[in-house]
Design brief:
about 550 residues, alpha+beta, Jelly Rolls, Glycosyltransferase, nine-stranded antiparallel sheet, 20 strands, about 30% helix
Length: about 550
């Protein structure tokens, strides 16, 4: 069952046609709209929410009530700007219409929840006054419980944590949702990140398991998973089928559930089988592949209304995209690890060699010696950070060059920049190269959203359609997995590797759930390069703590002095 509780609106921000009804929103007084009157009330919830609105009225036969819901208001140019500001802005969004019959205590409550920060009531009465008995709502979302804690000496990280958690909560209902206001669909790219947040912050893996099964069941005769499922409209995003493989790998590492994971091997094999015949023999890269090859909402890859696609890098339609080829290598390598674990060494070796061949081909065809980067295609006319990120994650760049290479591309604005979604993968590249101390420097997009008054994190930088997209809640995972550095060191999270990356922080403290119990930590910098504090693991869990080339064995309560 969903979590549900009563909530009230915060304030009326704008009102015309009548005086402000003091005490009405608090449920302390009724509000009478006289006959032959028209009023418009803009109501602010204070934060974005998902809930069932409940409007209780009496009388007012023949009246018309329009209720409009919106995540934010818009100026005359269609821009949102600061979400707290309403001056010279209007509401635009979907609406409900309620036609009172004149009876007493009539309740309007829709059959499915609505999403809003702002609600506008437009009421027209004719021959009878209308009495608004009450207006409130019942919050509804999947019952994720916040069991993790993260604290530091940087105040805005707490706000990022809180807003991120609200974002993740509103994007979880009967399934994960990409967003609660628009599609309300479970997309693989979003869901991989949402699943990690759920397991790290709440410890609840039920929606994760459900999502893995949903996507496996969505596969068609071709072998690909559908990009979003359940859905009445079939859609394919081939990179999302690859991210489903990565999701299975994530779950395998975090949960000791081999029987469940093994059931996905046939589906993984079917996804991978779709690709080899689409590799261009001339370059060794993925050639022309059908469907929507979405990567990220980079500004240089805009939505094209005429063919209804966007977010596609160079080579994404015509073929020979380094980004898409490296995403294939990334997933195939992880598939190889899964097959090796379950005893199929032959298939594991095939996948391992396939991944290596793909990365070698990308480097050979797309490395630009002049710029020192991988181009997005062999013609070397476009360069994205996305290609560099996956070059690190797949080790397409020689190992002895990876750290310097990452330091160079990290702040290079001449590259096509990743949005919030793809910065999840940027963070993994930083962690991969031992540069996770730079992670906090990459949170500018999140602090900008806070400065603009968002109470959940948006789909992409403004102008953004959706103000609530769980892929942008990735800091709730990375503050624990990257800053605190808590990651599984063996399948099933049977052992832990903790390698904090504090960056400019002086201290961190907190806890996160593990199937064996809570992992607790409190750490502070000492001197120029030292660290002290403690890490406490639940009974039966062991691991290692790493800092500046030194390590400490972890079991039970471990004092840290390095």
């Amino acid at each position: 069952m969903m979590e549900q509780y009563r909530q009230r609106f915060l304030t009326i921000r704008r009102l015309s046609g009548i005086e402000n009804p003091e005490g009405f929103l608090a449920g302390k007084k009724t509000w009478t709209i006289p006959a032959n009157n028209r009023i418009v009330a803009l109501i602010d919830q204070g934060t974005l929410t998902t809930a069932y609105p409940e409007l209780l009225v009496s009388g007012g036969k023949g009246s018309k009530i329009k209720v409009t819901y919106a995540e934010s208001l818009f100026d005359s140019k269609g821009q949102k700007g600061n979400r707290n500001v309403i001056l010279d802005k209007s509401i635009s969004g979907y609406s409900d219409y309620f036609l009172p019959d004149g009876g007493n205590v009539r309740l309007f409550r829709p059959l499915w929840f609505r999403t809003w920060r702002y609600v506008q009531l437009e009421i027209e009465t004719i021959n009878e006054p209308l009495v608004l008995e009450d207006f409130s709502s019942e919050f509804s979302a999947y019952p994720l419980k916040e069991k993790s804690v993260f604290e530091s000496d940087r105040a805005d990280l707490k706000e990022i944590w809180n807003v991120g958690w609200r974002t993740a909560r509103l994007c979880a209902n009967e399934t994960y949702f990409d967003c609660p206001y628009y599609e309300q669909l479970q997309y693989v790219g979003d869901t991989r990140i949402q699943a990690l947040i759920s397991m790290y912050v709440s410890g609840d893996d039920r929606l994760v398991r459900n999502a893995l099964l949903n996507f496996d069941e969505s596969r068609t005769y071709e072998g690909l998973t559908q990009s979003r499922y359940p859905s009445s409209a079939t859609q394919f995003i081939p990179p999302y089928s690859l991210f489903w493989i990565d999701m299975v790998h994530d779950y395998w590492m975090i949960r000791d559930d081999p029987g469940f994971v093994k059931g996905f091997l046939p589906g993984i094999e079917d996804v991978i089988k779709w690709y080899p015949r689409r590799i261009d023999p001339a370059t060794g890269l993925l050639g022309k592949t059908p469907y929507w090859n979405f990567v990220d909402w980079a500004r240089e890859w805009p939505w094209l209304t005429e063919n209804r696609i966007g977010g596609v890098p160079a080579g994404g339609e015509e073929g020979n995209s380094s980004v898409l080829t490296l995403q294939l290598a990334y997933a195939v390598k992880r598939a190889g690890e899964l097959f090796q674990y379950f005893g199929d060494s032959a298939k594991s070796e095939i996948y391992s060699q396939m991944a290596k061949k793909l990365t070698r081909s990308v480097y050979s065809a797309c490395w630009d010696e002049r710029r020192g980067y991988l181009a997005d295609t062999p013609d070397k006319t476009a360069f994205s950070m996305h290609a560099q990120i996956f070059a690190i994650l797949t080790h397409a760049i020689p190992e002895d060059q990876q750290k310097a290479f990452t330091e160079r591309f990290l702040m290079d604005k001449s590259l096509i920049q990743p949005t919030m979604y793809f910065r999840f993968y940027l963070t993994q590249a930083l962690f991969e190269t031992g540069l996770a101390d730079h992670y906090l420097e990459t949170l500018g997009l999140w602090t900008e959203m806070l400065e603009k008054g968002l109470t959940t994190f948006a789909e992409n930088p403004d102008p953004s359609r959706s103000d609530c997209h769980a892929w942008s809640a990735c800091p709730n995972y990375d503050l624990l997995a990257t800053v605190a550095g808590i990651r599984p060191d063996s399948p099933g999270f049977k052992t832990i590797r903790m390698e904090p990356s504090l960056g400019p922080l002086s201290f961190i403290k907190g806890s996160m759930p593990h199937v064996a119990g809570n992992i607790r930590f409190e750490l502070k910098r000492t001197g120029e390069t030292g660290i002290s504090g403690f890490v406490e693991l639940p009974p039966g869990l062991t691991g290692t703590f790493h800092w500046n080339g030194k390590s400490v064995e972890l079991h039970g309560y471990a004092k840290i002095e390095l």
